[in-house]
């Protein structure tokens, strides 16, 4: 999903179309990431351009201000999160491991890594009015996982509400690892174990409910034995 029109001009000036332009943008973002690791106090477009080895005019050709660079870095971070989760699902299938544990571990690990930078970048991202974009990206990846043949209950449909509840429950714990890691009540391993237990228990209940609903629907459509014997259609 693209950001609302009113936000687009504030985020980028032009999109890179040629390979060379993509390389320039990547160099700018790499330099910005390295500077951001030193703190926000020295994070500005002049220093980023200098670190990237490009002119300030070139930088402004792609990014109107440092806020737009923070948003671009946030997008790159979130994309890396999605790739890590997808890779975990593929690894679980290849190794015949529990896909739920592999995904939870990957997700929690990503949120533990560079927690301070992640807080800064997600703050800029959501502050730019991109909460709906974030929600859509999460929804799309959850739907992809649910449809994957290696996922528990593959082939059985969960409702949108069920997918939302279980994914947000786990994502909420993951984001707590970023937002308030020092105050968490348990070790990383204990949190991982409980999150895995939660997902499996929820999926089992959801699957049971779906099976009961399907059975009830089938029974409602099938005439009873007594009705058949009495000739009632």
From TrEMBL:
Signal sequence interval, chain numbering: none
Pfam families in the record: TetR_N (PF00440)
Q: Where is this region: Disordered?
A: 213-233
Q: Where's the HTH tetR-type domain?
A: 21-81
* Residue ranges flagged as DNA-binding region: 44-63
Q: Which UniProt keywords apply?
A: DNA-binding
PANTHER family hit by this protein? HTH-TYPE TRANSCRIPTIONAL REGULATOR RUTR, TRANSCRIPTIONAL REGULATORY PROTEIN
Q: Please state what the protein is called.
A: TetR family transcriptional regulator
């Amino acid at each position: 999903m693209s950001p609302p029109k009113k936000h687009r001009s504030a985020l980028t000036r032009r999109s890179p179309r040629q390979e060379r332009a993509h390389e320039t943008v990547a160099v700018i973002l790499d330099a910005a990431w390295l500077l951001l690791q030193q703190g926000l106090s020295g994070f500005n477009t002049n220093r980023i351009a200098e670190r990237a080895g490009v002119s300030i005019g070139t930088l402004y050709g792609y990014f109107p201000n440092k806020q737009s660079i923070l948003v671009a870095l946030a997008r790159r971070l979130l994309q890396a999160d999605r790739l890590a989760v997808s890779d975990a699902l593929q690894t679980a299938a290849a190794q015949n491991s529990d896909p739920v544990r592999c995904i939870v571990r990957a997700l929690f690990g990503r949120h533990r890594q560079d927690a301070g930078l992640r807080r800064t970048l997600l703050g800029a991202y959501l502050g730019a009015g991109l909460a709906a974009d974030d929600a859509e990206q999460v929804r799309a990846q959850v739907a992809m996982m649910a449809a994957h043949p290696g996922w528990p209950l593959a082939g059985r449909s969960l409702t949108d509400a069920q997918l939302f509840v279980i994914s947000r429950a786990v994502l909420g714990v993951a984001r707590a690892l970023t937002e308030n890691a020092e105050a968490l009540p348990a070790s990383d391993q204990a949190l991982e174990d409980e999150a895995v237990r939660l997902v499996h228990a929820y999926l089992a209940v959801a699957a049971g409910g779906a099976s009961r609903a399907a059975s009830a629907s089938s029974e409602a459509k099938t005439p009873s034995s007594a009705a058949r014997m009495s000739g009632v259609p």
